[in-house]
Amino acid sequence: MKYYLFLAAAIICEAIGTSFLKKTEQFTKPIPTAIFVIAMVSSFFLLSNALKGIPIGISYAIWSGVGIVVISLVGYFIYNENLDLPAIIGIVCIIIGVIIINVFSSSTTHS
């Protein structure tokens, strides 16, 4: 269970970092750039801790899949970016994939 907490924290940090990436304006704004770097380094540190108890492929699938969903929502609600029907369908497919991995896969724990 603690490894999934590391993974959840890694996802949160990755979402924060990616959210600030746009605000860095190609790394010309120091404060958003610093937040981005700190959040991403933290994310990878936490992800590396999650890998102690969750296989790398599963960890990365969840980390990137949930990250895509969260960042899409940040883009929609914070940056007023449009999500058309194909984008929404794709995001739903990602969510379904993460659920399938967690509920049905025996690969989610080390042997």
From TrEMBL:
<dbReference type="Pfam" id="PF00893">
    <property type="entry name" value="Multi_Drug_Res"/>
</dbReference>
<dbReference type="GO" id="GO:0015199">
    <property type="term" value="F:amino-acid betaine transmembrane transporter activity"/>
</dbReference>
<keyword id="KW-0812">Transmembrane</keyword>
<protein>
    <submittedName>
        <fullName>Multidrug efflux SMR transporter</fullName>
    </submittedName>
</protein>
<feature type="transmembrane region" description="Helical">
    <location>
        <begin position="31"/>
        <end position="48"/>
    </location>
</feature>
<dbReference type="InterPro" id="IPR037185">
    <property type="entry name" value="EmrE-like"/>
</dbReference>
<comment type="similarity">
    <text>Belongs to the drug/metabolite transporter (DMT) superfamily. Small multidrug resistance (SMR) (TC 2.A.7.1) family.</text>
</comment>
<keyword id="KW-0472">Membrane</keyword>
<feature type="transmembrane region" description="Helical">
    <location>
        <begin position="60"/>
        <end position="79"/>
    </location>
</feature>
<dbReference type="GO" id="GO:0015297">
    <property type="term" value="F:antiporter activity"/>
</dbReference>
<dbReference type="GO" id="GO:0015220">
    <property type="term" value="F:choline transmembrane transporter activity"/>
</dbReference>
<dbReference type="GO" id="GO:0005886">
    <property type="term" value="C:plasma membrane"/>
</dbReference>
<feature type="transmembrane region" description="Helical">
    <location>
        <begin position="85"/>
        <end position="104"/>
    </location>
</feature>
<dbReference type="InterPro" id="IPR000390">
    <property type="entry name" value="Small_drug/metabolite_transptr"/>
</dbReference>
<dbReference type="InterPro" id="IPR045324">
    <property type="entry name" value="Small_multidrug_res"/>
</dbReference>
<dbReference type="GO" id="GO:0031460">
    <property type="term" value="P:glycine betaine transport"/>
</dbReference>
<keyword id="KW-0813">Transport</keyword>
<keyword id="KW-1003">Cell membrane</keyword>
<keyword id="KW-1133">Transmembrane helix</keyword>
<dbReference type="GO" id="GO:1990961">
    <property type="term" value="P:xenobiotic detoxification by transmembrane export across the plasma membrane"/>
</dbReference>
